[in-house]
Amino acid sequence: MRLLSPDELSDEQRACLELYKPLIPEGAVCVNVMLGAEAWDVRPLVLEGKQVSICRISREMPEAECKAQAAELEGFSVVDFCPSQVFRAPGVKSFLLKRPYVAATLKDQLDSGEVKPGAHNESLLQQLLAHVRELKTCSLIHGHLCPGNLAIVDGALCLLDPLIGAVNGTDGKTVAPELSPGSEPSHATDLFGLGVSINAILGSTGSPEQQQMVKRLMLPSPRQRPALEDVEAVFRAGNAGSSQASSGAGGRMIKRAPSPSDRKDGGRVGTAQTPGQAQGGSRSKLITLVAVLLALAVVAGSRISGIYETVLGTLLTSGSERRAELESKWKSGDAEKMRAVARDATVGGDAVAEEVIVDSVMNGENPPSTTARLMRVALNDLWRDDLSDKDIDAVVRLTVAPLFKEGLDTLPPLSALHPGVILAVAGEMPPGDPAPQLKLLPIATFVKLPDPFGSAFKQLSELGVSSAGAPESVALAAIMSGLTGPRLFDAFMGPDTAPKVAVAKLSIIYPIVQGNDGAAAQLVASIRDKGGELGQVLGWFDIEDLAQWSKMSGAQKLALALNRLPETALTQSQYADLMTFPLPGVREQAALELKKKYFRDGDGNLLLTLSGAGNRLSREQTIALVSALALEPAKRAPFISAWFGLKPAPDTVLLVLLARGGYDSTDTFNLEAARYLRRHQWSATTDMLQLLAQHPEPLARTLAYTKLDPKDDAQKKILQDRISAEKDKGLLKMVMGRLSVDTPATPAPSSATP
Fold it and tell me: What is the pLDDT of residue 407?
């Protein structure tokens, strides 16, 4: 970045600066300009009072999108480590981001040596982890965390320029690979940036486990990156947090967020009750008595201390036996015994019974006559800490409802529950006939959830789905809850087979089914059977199995239907076959992979020709040609001869011949191609004939000279130019004959006089 006066700007840079004027706050004066590597990257420094700020302008976008992006940026006002303001103006399709100017970013300090990578930067690392944690808690996404967007101000780490890099489509190694221009960042994007930043802060000084964690954070696939909690555990090994105690042996405490009705007298709220609390006031009085005895024991000595130990042992044994009894009933499989535990947990308010049920389900068990999956989704770690007592009580009642329906009598309305609980309930409903309560809720209910849940429903809402009870919403809730099947996939994809809608829906659901081969195969079949353009694309794999597509996973086929190559490498035959795929993006990527792995740089034109719209070869012919030309020259001859026996389209043979103009006259394919064209009808434009007339293969030039028409001025000019360029005497005579002129005589050698 360079710092210049506004007077030093070029005309192009001044024009860029003019774009800021409608958005810069009144009273702010532009005093200097920061210039990036590109002429358009102009960032004015403005002075307001004694505060110098730097401004960034977004790209132009539709008004609704501009408004939404600006509103998302305004959300950063809740965190003090990312100081910034957003400004919009009526009729302007951009917004302005203004934040305090810093003389040097962390990248500048690392580059200059002012800050050196290493373990001594522990404070910076911990601040960064805390900031990313708070962003996630507040459902905020920076979009481009990197040393260039970090700064140390008064010893504290600040985040600079939130979202603007993602909105404007910043390129570079510090940007998450999934963040293409126009795409929206996610929490996984910030995890990638966290890895980039930690790598710069620590350098190579981290432990092997920490270095491995950084590599995982920077994996290309968002789904492969670790959870923030795992990152914190590795980088905060010394104080990863104390484990939470259980009120029973082997149990887990049910964590709950305080609700308005919680106690405010300084006592601990939002935790599960102890067995003593569940048994009423008498036990509470006994515990108080024990506390008194303990105090007396300090004064009176061992006799009272012994009484204390006896009473406390009785209480603990009683609580342990109570839990063991409930666990035995719950795990018995006997409906009546399980119903008794369910009744105690719901109507009876027994916290121990509730914990027995929750621990059983959350440990992976599936008790009969329960909706265990509903509980596991509702108590997802992404939002479990945010659930109130009312939410958890509702989850338990819903989970045991098949056993004890009476527990539903006092269930609050869906709208009063946490969105994560509503999602779990929706996932258990039939997409075509959900509960009326769900139909009344907006899809924004689910958008509020943390990613990947919230972002998936946000994308769905952008396709025009507005209700949480719409078939697409209910189906997506079920699929994200772990259910799959043709019924759900059909409901989610909907009846609309319009390509843009179908591809957009597939983009939403693909990350969810990507790791489930069975689900991905079902989704492929569902889309293929539905028809439409996307169905035809997936049907392409079933037409011919020359490249063994039947052995490819459903997830790989879905990736190709989304116009991108799968992450796993393919075979040479598969790349070759993909050069005839219905989607041009896949064809081009396949050509690049073939060039990189099997061909030389000079074969780029050949592969572009085969992957282009002008390729009239069949899939079999394309695969066979690529296989033959990928061989060493000495081994090609029999395969090339056999390939022409497949009777390829002459016009495409001509295109391939022209694309291989970089080979000399000894090339076997070029000779065979020219012979093939001499025996078949073909057509060519004047430009193609000009290239053919310059081809290193003599027989190819013969074809051109035969086709060129001297009565056409442009083609006559080509023949005339060849008089001085053609080195073969026989072909030169042919050119002269076409032009009806005498062949120029070979000049006699001059005799030197002494």
Answer: 82
